[in-house]
Write the structure tokens for this entry.
Amino acid sequence: MTRFLLLLISLFLLKIAHGQSLEGKVVNIQNGNPLAFVNILFDHTGRGVSCDIDGMFVIKDLEGIHKLHFTYVGFHDTSIAVTAIQNNFLNLKMRPKSYQLKEVKIYPGENPAHRIIRNCVDNRKVNNPEKLISFSYKAYHKMIFTAKSTAEHQADSVLRSNHSISIGTNASTTTNTTPEETDTAAEWEENFFKSQHLFMMESVTERKFKRPDKNYEKVIGTRVSGLKDPLFALVATQLQSFSFYHPEINILDKNYINPISPGSWNKYFFNIEDTIYKGVDSVYVISFRPFKGKNFDGLRGVLYINTHKYAIQNVIAGPADTTESIGIKIQQKYNLIDGKYWFPVQLNTNIEFNSISLNNQALIGIGKSYLKNIKINPPIKKQHFNNVVLDIDRMASKQDSSFWNKNRVLQLDSLELKTYNVIDSIGQAEHLDEKLWILRTLTNGFIPWGPINMEIDKFFQFNEFEGFRMGLSIKTNDRMARWVQLGAYGAWATRDMEWKYGGSLDFTLHRPSETHLYIEYKHDVVESASQESFSKNTFYNTDLYRNFLVRQMNYTNSLKAELQFRAIPNFSWKIGINVYDKLENKPYSPPNQVLNPSSASTLFEEAYIETRFAYKEKIIRNPLYQISLGTKYPILNIRYTHGLYSNTGNISDNPAYDRIDLQLSKSFFIRYLGTSSFTIRGGLIQTDQNMPWYQLYNGRGSYASFYLESPNSFGTMRMNEFLSNQYLSMFYRHNFGTLLFGDKKFVPQPEFISSFTIGSLPNNFSYPNIEYNTLDKGFFESGIMLNSILKSGFSTIGIGAFYRYGVYAFPNEWDNFALKFSLKFVL
């Protein structure tokens, strides 16, 4: 009878399962986070399905299936009998393994995973979506920032909300209380983060792409809790590479060597963890991580490779170095579109800010991007593209609820709704948009004060000519007027005891083309025989460290008018006139001795045109301003000047001159070696007569026995040691980063530097009152910097040395050395 009863019950349960479908979700038992791409095998047959990127799965028919086996890399296998499933939704919790990976020993014979990886590498151009003729899609992006415990609480709440069976240990529940019921701020904070997130953002974009690299994405909707500025909503779209087939994978603006790239099997250890059979195709689950002792920026994670075209079907990856202050994990899911093309349909990014604590929990960011309306090889004309790769529609931040209800993949849950309600209210009460504007202004080197911005680096300066220079420089901002900016400054220095002052007007004539009319007057000093610098004088520009050492300067009165604009793709332009005089000063005097200008004065009148060519420069444009994302190609700056000069003030009968200045710069990443960069500078002044020496070129030296390293200058060359009317310089740097010694505290990041310059000065150019040498035989120096020995949250400090060699080396060997320390800002 007992056997009959058990048989009857079994038949009843099987009858329920017959023809029945099953949906479910698989999560981590410890924190409730969904597990992407878990393998679900049917009765150990090798057939089965996989979870999607959010841990969800669907089994369309359970008929003939007796047991489900759940396997996932790094987690204990879990099995459940179909007869134990009492309804059509299953919540399954898997327990992670507790173990440490040991050093891999290589034995004779090829790793069987290498054949699969090689096939995937060989087919990467076929499967890379950015190798298609064209494509377009619409995407919905959402990102939340919250305490780690809140995300776990939210995930567990989602599980408990379904009427289903749970396999595993239930998370403990807590009682909600209000701030009035708590005794401490910590308790209030704990309850705050259990009912809502810190803040969140959403955006909807439409993207078009045309081979080889024409790209345009338009933001048609943005929403950020507590803020109206739409720029922050773009964060979720810029966190990771769109495709996992590039040689380097970009995550949070850092490049990592792709495990799916030529030769990766020599750097990564691959292991076949599982195999799933889907019809005639198989899906190989392969884990990867860098070999022990290999110092390079690598990833670790799991690849799901489908034998159909040996394409990536799913990927989970994160930096192999887990000691960084920011932890990140990316997930990508690909579907077969039109039965032919593998294309990403969902991108997830999880960020953990280990150095930021909320309620004794790390701050985390959870970003998800869903792609839909995917069209492969649609007809798209080249005229649809320009340098703007991301365009924010002026109505993007004003979309109503019907727009969001239509475009959201999943409707907002209670925590997300409360986040918008509460943080929007706080944003209005606390003026968060204004505070964000202040913060952005500060990072640009200004202190905002109502309608006025004060330049931070103009409060206090130093150079060897003026001594300590104290001043105030102000410029109006958009709060006074958007079409014009007024500027004024004044300064006084302790060594020359002279006042300097000036003013400017900057008219915005056409914002989309960045057309400005700039007018400036100044009574000030400028470096004698300075080379043209095309670098922006920003607060964080390390090239400006050299300014502290400048000891030869000229007093000048100048009036300039300049038209700035963008015209012709990839070009920006400046056209202007400049009228100024310069006083020839006495030679450099010792410190604390007042410098008096001599009576010799030269008047100059110049007209110039300058262009900047940045091929395929990427630009983000919103209704108020544009932001450059740079370019992977060299940037070329050229400036041509035609001028007249006179010692009497009568220009009509005095000599003319032509001047050409140029700069070419490029930075590029070399796999397994680090980042190289070079800058080439040159200048030529052509005139028939003896040009004033302070209008020529010095060698751009930056020597001091122990001083800050100033890039794109010569650390062993003395100030004003050389003089030329034409020159060519090249500065090369290679930064090994963490490749040699890793990325731990007090571990240096070596950087090799080598520089060269050559120049000449005609025989008829003679200056008996000053000491100088010429560069006819070429000047050489090399050095090494050990950067990042000391690190803080926003800067790094290093130390190094430079050596001077060649014809211009000094007889005393020690005079050819210069010790340097580096100070770099991490923003």
